[in-house]
Design brief:
By secondary structure, this protein is of the alpha/beta class. The protein has 11 helices and 10 strands. It has a single domain, classed as TIM Barrel. α4 runs parallel beside α5 and α7 runs parallel beside α8.
Length: 234
């Protein structure tokens, strides 16, 4: 069943070095996949990792989840947007002033990068949220944060696939949803709010993040063939 468009899948490069990441990227076609560079790889390699994979033709999602006082986020994001990235993010729990500072940083840069906000990490469940002192359940918290992001002209959010339908209902079909915690075969490991690939697409996810199920697969080629069996040929 072909249900995914080319470049709708973002592969998370959760590695310690360019060398390790390259061992996976060599299997990937930049016309089919985008790449996610997170804290782990960026902390080890810095901006040169962006140069490396940009030169190979990949669109890059720089996933650093900036979360700090507004002025710090503004300055950090201004610097990051000097890099050639397709998309980057902040954490929406930083508050409305921080979100506005992030938007202003993007507006005051020459970058056309998408700016999205993390709602509630997919590793968290209702028990975790309650212990952190929140009096609302996760769907309501995600809804509040997403509406705040939309109001402040952020392009979209990172959320679980379970929350996409409600977000689209409240913020519109053009409001981007990026969904980690997507499973093809593997059972849940360190994610709490997971979904199958079919569920994510049915709910309206714009971008699907695939991580260790692909990158740690014992047979990378076989897993890629399985993933690409879902991709619509253009």
């Amino acid at each position: 069943m072909k249900i995914i468009k080319p470049k709708q899948i973002i592969v998370a490069l959760d590695f310690d070095s360019i060398k390790e990441a390259s061992s996976i990227v060599k299997y990937l076609d930049p016309e089919i996949y985008r790449l996610k560079i997170g804290k782990q790889l960026f902390a080890c390699e810095g901006p040169k990792v962006l140069d490396k994979f940009n030169k190979q033709g990949f669109d890059l999602f720089l996933d650093l989840k900036l979360h700090d006082i507004p002025n710090t986020v503004y300055k950090a994001l201004k610097n990051l947007l000097n890099q050639d990235v397709w998309m980057t993010n902040i954490h929406l729990l930083g508050g409305e002033e921080m979100i506005q500072a992030a938007r202003e940083a993007r507006e005051n840069s020459k970058s056309k990068a998408l700016l999205i906000g993390v709602t509630v990490l997919t590793s968290l469940d209702e028990f975790n949220i309650k212990n952190m002192g929140f009096s609302v359940r996760i769907p309501e918290l995600v809804k509040i944060l997403s509406i705040t992001a939309k109001k402040n002209n952020i392009d979209g959010v990172v959320c679980s696939a379970q929350e996409v339908s409600e977000i689209k209902k409240n913020s519109g079909k053009d409001f981007i949803t990026v969904t980690p915690g997507i499973r093809i075969e593997q059972k849940n490991n360190d994610q709490a709010r997971v979904a199958s690939l079919e569920e994510a697409i049915k709910n309206g996810s714009d971008y699907i993040v695939l991580g260790r199920e692909l990158t740690a697969s014992k047979d990378i080629s076989k897993m890629i063939k399985k993933i690409e069996s879902y991709i619509i040929c253009e």
